[in-house]
Write a structure and sequence with these properties.
about 160 residues, mainly alpha
């Protein structure tokens, strides 16, 4: 049984479960941040910790796009929409990491030493970012494989002679 012409029902269920699990984990990360905030400062009203001691964002709200990716995957005929949302999420994620690193440098670009890309990511990333990078990379490779299967099947249908 197929979810649509190119994805089996089992694969669609796995893809949906994966996207939902990631969304739930990100909600748990937010909840744990709130609980940690309440425990560390019991007399202060809790708030989502958006910036750390050095002014860098700890939980950028754009990670909540995982909910919309889950909804797009849930609808089997909207597979292309989920792929475009994942690409959008990847671009925003990479831009956010770059902006946080560049914003965290003292003196701006001209006074700071040149840093390798791997060190930039190491200095700017946190637990949320590593989790999001894992999610984005697995989901993109999975969706690209589905798109390649779609292209192969459509090209095979067109090449058959009557």
């Amino acid at each position: 049984m197929k979810a649509n012409n190119y994805i089996s029902k089992r694969e669609h269920n796995l893809l949906t479960t994966f996207a939902f699990t990631v969304f739930v984990c990100l909600i748990l990360f937010i909840s744990l941040s709130l609980i940690e905030e309440v425990i560390s400062q019991p007399n202060v009203m809790p708030k989502v910790k958006l910036s750390g001691d050095n002014g860098l964002m700890i939980f950028p709200p754009f990670h909540l796009i995982t909910f919309f990716i889950f909804l797009a995957i849930l609808k089997t005929k909207r597979f292309l929409l989920s792929f475009l949302l994942t690409i959008f999420y990847a671009f925003i994620f990479i831009y956010g990491l770059s902006a946080r690193f560049k914003g965290g440098q003292l003196g701006g670009e001209e006074f700071s030493p040149k840093v390798d890309l791997h060190l930039e990511i190491y200095y700017a990333a946190n637990g949320y970012d590593y989790f999001a990078a894992f999610f984005i990379s697995i989901l993109l490779f999975w969706q690209i494989s589905i798109l390649l299967r779609m292209l192969i099947k459509t090209s095979q249908k067109e090449s058959v002679l009557p």
